[in-house]
Design goal:
The protein has 171 residues and is of the alpha/beta class. It has a single domain (11-167), classed as Rossmann fold (3-Layer(aba) Sandwich), CATH 3.40.50.620. It has helices spanning 23-35, 56-66, 82-88, 101-118, 136-144, 155-168, and strands at 11-16, 38-44, 73-78, 93-98, 121-126. Bound molecules: 4'-phosphopantetheine (PNS).
């Protein structure tokens, strides 16, 4: 950067359901933390797709514990429109991870709408190929069927999954 150029602001927001967080999410968070000054990981309170398995408090706690090594990452939550929350916290950019082409098709409309509503751009990080097939819903399905998910989630999430299964008798 040239001397005298205006200071670039770089507060990124990484929104999601995080039900639960996966290693793919953590990879995007770690890479964002090395690019941007501050990263707000923002948990949507009521994901529209489904009723969440984990409460808001649980999802925030998992994320806080998994991201504690990054001093510039904070975990928060929002209700309603992402575009409104982006303005509320004065974020400069929305970060999303892209795993496969179908992610892009959905995310393109979101990015246009969010920019139209809040004038904030969305920047996409290509997910690490190791996690291109990892999603929160698949993790829950595999776990429900007795599969081993240890490779795909951090230890704290694995513990939470075990506790949830014990508490509910099933997930
Ligand atoms: O982890 P997810 O479920 O893919 O995250 C989706 C999320 C939370 C980013 C998206 O559903 C969202 O932004 N929800 C807030 C409501 C909103 O702003 N909807 C219009 C999007 S253009």
């Amino acid at each position: 950067m040239h001397n005298g150029s205006p200071q670039k602001k770089s507060h990124a927001i990484y929104p999601g359901s995080f039900d639960p967080p996966t290693n793919g999410h953590l990879d995007v968070i770690a890479r964002s933390a090395s690019i941007f000054t501050t990263v707000t990981v923002a948990v949507v309170v009521n994901p529209q797709k489904r009723s969440p398995l984990f409460t808001l408090d649980e999802r925030e706690d998992m994320l806080r514990r998994c991201t504690s090594a990054h001093s510039n990452v904070r975990v928060a939550h929002f209700r309603g429109l992402l575009a409104d929350y982006v303005k509320e916290i004065d974020a400069d950019v929305i970060v999303k991870g892209l795993r496969v082409v179908s992610d892009f098709e959905n995310e393109m409309a979101f990015a246009h709408m969010n920019r139209s509503l809040s004038n904030v751009d969305t920047m996409f990080l290509m997910s690490d190929s190791a996690y291109s097939f990892v999603s929160s819903s698949l993790i829950k399905e595999v776990y429900l069927q007795g599969g081993d998910i240890a490779k795909y989630v951090p230890d704290v999430v694995l513990e939470y999954m075990h506790h949830k299964r014990q508490a509910q008798g099933r997930i």
